[in-house]
Amino acid sequence: METSEVQHHPLKLSRRTLLQIGARAVLASPVAALLAACGGGSSPSAPATTGATSTTAATGATTAQTPTSGTTGAPASPAASPSSSASSAGASPAAAGMVPDNVKPGGTLTVALGTDISSMEPQQTTETSSDGVRLNLYDSLVWIDNPKWQVIPWLASKWEVSDDGKTYQFTLTDTPVKFHDGTSFSADAVKATFDRLLGPNKSTAAGIDFAGILDTVTVVDPKTVKFTLSAPFAPFLIRMGYNAAAILSPDAITKYGQNYSDHPIGTGPYKFVEYRKGDHVTFVKNPDYWNGTVYYDQVIYKIVPEDASRATLVQTGEAQVADRIPPALASALQGGGNAIIRADHTSRFVFMEFNQHHDLMKDARVRQALNYGVDKDSIVKNIMKGYGGVPTAPIPTVAQYAQAQTPYTYDVAKAKSLLQEAGVKAGTPLVIWSPQGRYVGDKDIATAVQGMMNDLGFNASVQVFGDFPTYIKQLDSLNYDMAIWGWVSPDPDVGLNNVYSGQFAGKFPNWGGYSNPTVDGLLKQAVASTTDAERANLYAQAQKQIWQDAPVLWLDWQQNLTGLSTKVVNVYDDLEEVLVVRFSGYKA
Amino acid sequence: MRETGIAGTPREAGALDVLGSARRGRQRSPLARFVRNRAAGVGAAIILLIVLTALLAPVIAPDDPYHQDLAASLQGPSAGHLFGTDSLGRDVLSRVLYGGRITIPMGVAAVAIALILGVPVGLFSGYRLGWTDTLAMRLTDILLAFPSLLLAMAIMAALGVHLWTVSVAIAVTSIPLYVRLVRGEVMRLRGREFVDAARCVGVNDRTIVFRHILPNALSPIIIQASLNAALAILSVSALSFIGLGAQPPSAEWGAMLADGRSVMQVAWNVTTFPGIAIVLVVLGFNLLGDGLRDAYDPRSRR
Amino acid sequence: MLAYALRRIVMLVPVLVGVSVLVFLMLHLTPGDPARLVAGPDATPTQVDEIRHALGLDQPLYRQYYVYMVRLAHGDLGQSIVTHDAVTDELAPRFAATAQLSGAAMLVAIVVGMSFGIISATRQYSVVDNLMSVLSLVGLSTPAYWLGLMLILLFSLHFRWLPAAGAGGIQHLILPTITLAMFAMATVARMTRGSMLDVLNQEFVQTARAKGLRERVVIIRHALKNALIPVITVVGLQVGQLLSGAVLTETVFAWPGIGRFMVDSIQARDFPIVQGGVLLTATTFVVVNLLVDLLYGVVDPRIRYP
After folding, report:
1. How large is the ipTM?
2. pTM, entire model
3. Residue C41 gets which letter from DSSP?
4. Which among B103, B146, B253 is the top mutation candidate for probing chain C, defined by the most C β-carbons within 10 Å of its own β-carbon?
5. Strands, DSSP E only, in chain B?
6. Within an 8 Å CB–CB cutoff, is residue A205 touching chain C?
7. Contacts with C, A 438-467, CB within 8 Å
8. CB atoms within 10 A of CB A166
9. How far apart are CA B17 and CA C229, in angstroms?
10. DSSP conformation letters of B121-135
11. Does B261 touch chain A if contact means CB atoms closer than 8 Å?
12. Residues B89, B73: contact at Cβ < 8 Å?
């Protein structure tokens, strides 16, 4: 694919390319920020000035960007919608206090969320929409500027990694930091946090990121803390920037124990006021925030499950931000007025598990055939309205070390012949499961795939689950042939290991049960590797093997569509699909 | 005072009152009045028309209702697609035409199930009285007091989501209506001579109830059933709204309405046409029920 | 009448106990394990067992029910499995929100519905009558959430007159009230019309007219009073409809009520919340209908209570 180079390294777009893009009036704020970053943007003031033009530029970008406009293969490549590919690029603040000059403090930000918050405690769940809400409350030791894979000092001012890659020693910031409950931040807090995360009573989605990797945490002195790993683990520093690694108040841990979520205490820019399940969460400004200016007086997240209502709230100005706008509605927000659509690249990729506990799916030829038999280009172009792309690798193209493979181009004849070879009879029943409203166009995509499966001669049916927790729970039953599932993985280890390794075969998050010892071995070697080149090479091999085995039906990777008031600046979705508002404010 | 449930749930009272106040002086036969009744005529005509188009859907539909053409998604009405296309590029007109084949039977099935379960209970409850009656009444009180949508959700959680479970779930929530209605009728009829006469010649209870009492109580049951069919079809669409309706790619009207609702702003046609279909058929059943009631009850005739 | 009322109140107890048994069975016999949901998708079976034990869900069903009822007798509805807050604290504000919405809808339904019904009945077969009959039939036949979404598009988005969603001032109440009231309004209008027509043909009304009383007096003093009974009955029954139907309206308008919360809680298998919420809703329903029954006597003194 001619655009593949751009695809894997969206951040390595040349400066000239960006300028050209800018000339075509698709200069989104992040691009501006990125340019600034390229031109010595390490000083916080530089992005501030360039960012000044951001929202207006972004408006231009979104209108110009109507995604499917003609470009061949457009949906598949980020290059076709450069503003968005780059948007996540520069959006993350390079440093604290990196907010454009034209932002004024004050006001209330109202965010309309499509789904409820699963927990206010970062160690409980890792669901991205909750992460976005929690990001207001908590800080981690480092901040990951994820498109650049740059690790930025945050609560830790610096760190040293031992030569064997097994010890990480963090020096904590000199700025005095206090938790919302008044407790002082120190090495003890860090230890208490991780002891809790790894503690015997904890097994949560968050724990999966550290269990078996992190061994012990020791306090060297009040300003220094040492992490010892059980084996070298290259992505460790990145994981320290996860919401799951957010530092909790040791006092609150003792006081509230398992009910931390009901009394969330962090060091973040906003303090928790109240949470009413299924209705709203309210935060107020933390006037003593240690790391830069906090703009809003109040941030309110309202749960508005109805897509049409949520979009309307931004259009009428009742809310300033609305997440997860369905692509088909994007055009409604592009006609000028109070609201714009912001399209951000995420590392969310969506696929269907092939249930390899069923004989039918044990045959790699069948799995390949189904990958050939689904018109993914059409799905992305028509159902997702171009806000996304067709996967060209087992992990999203924006992920580190993603390696483009030979695409499974839509080819019914080839699919049929593979099926024939595998001895699949016409009329074989095929049960497809899908959640509703979790991934962009999920139900429609499942229905479209059902139609395409019937074209291949299957007798396919669809079952939709309106409620996502129920869906996850039902996936354990393995009563399906194919089931839509998605994963966010800017970090290749998360993407490859959790989704494709035998370690999780038959259960969350690899229900389909794909297990290939070769792949498992390569993945293990990769996380233990010490050089970048070695790691890249191992991941490349693993991806090649996975691609060949076709353990899942790769469907799409998605852009996140956020409805945004023209009055606020610096709201963005990061690569992990987390909606970040902590650096934003009202335009002056 | 009219019969009221002890737990304060005289749901039947309203319906019965209009009926009850009418059982005096009937000049013409109900059938003749029904035929002359405009509302009933319009209602019957609407239902007939929709049933007919549903039956003839394979002949008159311009397209296969399940044929997807992703490239033609969310198009407005045009010569090629009179009602436009939905999010998967399917012809909305064809889907609306075929939808009647799913939605109407679902509504009718819900009513039928409620009748089959509710009518016998009402009959015996009203005829036997005593503890049978007390038990039946308390059970209906409980069902009536229970939030109906939650009950339907629970039933579907237990039985799984299928077209027939939707009908069962809706039926269960309307059973109390029939039990109470029928019981009231039986109480009215059980003192009549023909019942006494039958009992005297040694006819057993079951025969009396089904052969003698039921035929005399049929009219209000039919009226209630017609009005209830209207409600059942609305309930189908309500369940679709919370994701418990017909599964894709079904062209069930409620599901079409629920699916298209997020894009109403940009593609009005996707919801408008199935919405109109629902309103029409529900209107038809309501008019029919009204007409039947008027026919049965000459005093409220128009 | 007092004795009757007391007897009726006592008889509410078995009904509410029945409701509590039913909700208990319903929750425990349907698939879906709260412990599994609380534990998260990747918990080990042992951890799920621990949580199940902590929640008391490993006890036999009758035992769980007994514990629940003993607590209930002490006014304790338990704690939410999800938020750990007291069920009463969780339900109270939401019930208030739903009561506000349902109350407003009921008021609109009664005032507008009865006015329509009276106007229709006094001008039988006129254009106005026909128009109102058709309107109420359409109101009765329109799926509520569809109506709600169209109102949002029209009045919030297009005209920008009213807020689209959320709770707040009186203006937030208008669209959801109309949406929720539509069905009840149509029902009340139809019932009032039928009932009024019934009464208007009766002798005492003819007599009143013959006495030379003004038509307005005849209608309001004599006819309406006598036509009220079936209308009141319908109103009482619509309360159940409103509490239940509020789910859809609350979802469309993001109204923080109990209906949407109950649906979410069923899906999250938050048993204590669902049990408490169902009991609360059922109690409201039976109490309102008890009041309706007692109201018969006030409206029509001829009614004697057995």
Report:
1. 0.85
2. 0.84
3. T
4. B146
5. none
6. yes
7. 467
8. 17
9. 9
10. HHHHHHHH-HHHHHH
11. yes
12. yes
